[in-house]
Specification:
By secondary structure, the chain is α/β, with parallel strands linked by helices. The protein has two domains: 43-348, Purple Acid Phosphatase, chain A, domain 2 (4-Layer Sandwich), CATH 3.60.21.10; 362-580, no CATH class. The protein has helices spanning 8-36, 83-96, 117-134, 155-161, 208-223, 243-246, 255-264, 328-334, 340-348, 350-369, 372-375, 384-399, 408-414, 427-440, 450-485, 489-503, 507-525, 546-580; strands at 44-49, 102-105, 137-140, 172-173, 180-184, 188-192, 227-231, 269-272, 279-284, 290-295, 305-311, 315-322, 536-539. The chain has a seven-stranded mixed sheet with strand order 4-5-6-7-8-10-9. The chain has a six-stranded mixed sheet with strand order 3-2-1-11-12-13, with no helix packed on it. Strand 11 and strand 12 (315-322) form a beta hairpin. Helix 2 runs parallel beside helix 3, helix 10 (350-369) packs across helix 14 and helix 15 (450-485) packs across helix 17 (507-525). It is globular and about 70 Å long. The termini are far apart.
Length: 585
């Protein structure tokens, strides 16, 4: 059947309908902003910290890591014994900063707060002393380490212990949760949202009821002539490649849908923690509203940082502040076991000391994870020898010197490739430095830089040597054993012959795996989302206009297309790069 062309009048009507729809969309997106303009904006300036993880210090430091300095580090790389003294220095800096009007803390005030209430009482005492001496208000919200309904510290306990730190200023609360709202200055309202589950240890507890409550509070703020700012513990947006898959318990479920709603409800700023990284990223809704998620690193871990914000209607300025020193005299008076060299290094550069502590802790944690026991693979499992060979190959190469005699460099030369020069001593040194850069933010390891190149070539080498060891006897043997258990002996022989005739080995699988993994590694090592993580200036709440939203809609569409194209290009680039290396391998 042939379709007749639409009449001119019909086309004109459709154009008008589309125009009306766009106008309504733009009006909806900026209506809340217009309502706020009635009061003068005096601006606000405040400090933002997250994941303080206060620990009651031990009487003496203990450890089992093979390192002359950081032997007492731990698998979480958290400076537990120093935590209280780092927090003291943070509060001292906030008290002395004349521009700092108040302090926000986005969860995990205590490390074992669910099971050791004393940590909360100690932490509350520190905050109370700060408020009394400085006259500055503290606003907190709970994190997953702080409370749960099946622990010694319930939500009600948390709100009681921290009653003076936001709850005393609450305009509204959400029954059954730790959520509340409070006014900040003359033009802003804090929505402190409890994003935690009632009993789950890490995953978020977002629900339709919580979203409805946020919507109500955002509307109430706009009716009162105020801009809504949201603070919660869990991330709203991805702060690493595929965070929803890799670290699913650190980001709210349906995060893009939630970000879409928050942005269109007039929320421009969201302050989060939990991931222990310093990262800022943005999301643009279909209506062109932009929302920024500032994930703030753990205060008591490298890089020992917090944020300072200065906000007016026109702009949002933020900077990173660091804890460069602590009172080591008070530390050693409380905790014994520190060597003179450790204290000297702390006094000369506490931030550098915390980086060494973090890197050694990460190495310890990863090396523990790379064991058959931790992987939970029994010795009688069909694939035990296959995995054991691969795991041992990884740990061996990561532990070897990168350069010199008996080094990774010499192994690489056997396969016809050269490692770029660097200051890294081992593969562990390289890997932990990349992870530390993620914690600190501003990941600047660009695609063609020596760090990313070295990381990828080391990965190639690990995969190549592992596959070389398992490709014939173990890899095909496992496949044969599994098929034989299913009574498919003939099929297993035929598949083995087919695999050998097509591939000769498993090199094709090697190239395919690297082609997929390489863009993810690059995305982890290089932050190019357009929002500066630690220092920057963004448009303020009052800068939203219909024209800007329309431009944002266009940029949103082209940005999605560009990201897809970029990812495909990176996969193809690494496929080509690895194919070119095939002869050398």
């Amino acid at each position: 059947m042939l379709l007749r062309p639409a009449a001119k009048g019909t086309i004109a009507s459709m154009k008008k309908l589309i125009s009306v729809f766009l106008c309504i969309s733009l009006l909806v997106s900026v209506t809340g902003i217009c309502a706020v303009a009635a009061q003068p904006d005096e601006g606000i300036s405040f400090a933002l910290a997250s994941d303080l993880h206060y620990n009651v210090p031990r009487d003496a430091i203990e450890g089992e890591i093979d390192d002359p300095i950081f032997w007492y580090s731990n698998r979480r790389a958290a400076m537990n014994d120093e935590s209280g003294f780092i927090i003291d220095e943070f509060l001292r800096q906030c008290a002395q900063d004349e521009e700092c009007e108040f302090v926000l803390i986005s969860g995990d005030l205590a490390d074992h707060g669910r099971t050791i209430p004393q940590e909360h009482y100690d932490m509350a005492e520190k905050l109370r002393a700060f408020e009394e001496s400085s006259g500055k208000q503290v606003y907190v919200i709970n994190g997953n380490h702080d409370a749960s309904e099946d622990s010694q510290t319930t939500f009600a306990d948390f709100m009681r212990i921290y009653a003076d730190f936001g709850y005393d200023k609450a305009l509204a609360t959400d029954e059954g949760t730790c959520s509340y709202t409070a006014n900040l200055g003359t033009k802003y309202r804090l929505i402190a949202l409890d994003s935690c589950g009632k009993t789950a240890s890490t995953e978020d507890g977002m629900s339709q009821e919580k979203l409805d409550w946020v919507h109500e509070q955002a509307d109430a703020a706009k009716r009162d002539g105020r801009y809504p700012i949201l603070m919660m513990h869990h991330n709203l947006l991805d702060h690493m490649p595929l965070e929803r898959i890799i670290s699913r318990n650190f980001i709210v479920r349906f995060h893009y849908t939630t970000a879409e709603l928050f942005a269109d409800w007039g929320i421009k700023l969201v302050f989060t923690g939990h991931e222990h990284c310093s990262d800022a990223t943005s999301f643009t809704s279909a209506l062109g509203n932009v929302i920024y998620d500032f994930a703030t690193t753990a205060l008591t871990m490298y890089p020992l940082e917090y944020r300072m914000f200065s906000i007016t209607e026109n702009e949002i300025e933020y900077t990173a502040k660091s804890i460069d020193s602590i009172d080591t005299d008070a530390l050693t008076a409380r905790v014994s076991g520190y060597s003179p060299e450790q204290i000297s290094l702390m006094n000369s550069d506490m931030r550098a000391y915390s980086k060494g502590f973090l890197k050694k802790g990460i190495e310890y944690r990863l090396s523990l994870s790379l064991s058959m026991e931790k992987l939970g693979i029994a010795e009688d499992a069909i694939y035990y020898n296959l995995v054991k060979t691969a795991v041992e190959g990884i740990t061996d190469i990561l532990s070897m010197p990168l350069y010199g005699d008996n080094s990774v460099q010499q192994i690489a030369e056997q396969y016809g490739t050269q490692l770029p020069d660097s200051d890294f001593e081992t593969g562990w040194d390289l890997v932990t430095d990349v992870v530390a850069a993620h914690y600190a933010g501003e990941e600047a390891y660009d695609l063609d830089g020596p760090e990313v190149t070295l990381l990828l070539k080391t990965l190639v080498l690990i995969l190549k040597t592992d596959l070389a060891a398992v490709s014939d006897e173990l890899f095909l043997g496992v496949a044969r054993d599994m098929l034989e258990q299913l009574g498919a002996d003939v099929i297993s022989d035929e598949l083995t012959e087919l695999g050998n005739s097509v591939y000769g080995s498993v090199e094709a699988g090697q190239y395919f795996i690297l082609a997929l993994v390489s863009p993810l590694l690059y995305g982890f090592a290089y932050d190019d989302d357009g929002v500066n993580d630690n220092n920057g200036i963004l448009p303020g709440y009052g800068s939203v206009s219909a024209g800007e939203n329309l431009a944002n809609i266009g940029a949103n569409v082209t940005g999605i297309a560009a990201r897809i194209t970029h990812f495909v290009q990176m996969i193809m680039k690494y496929v080509n790069m690895l194919a070119n290396l095939k002869e050398a391998f």
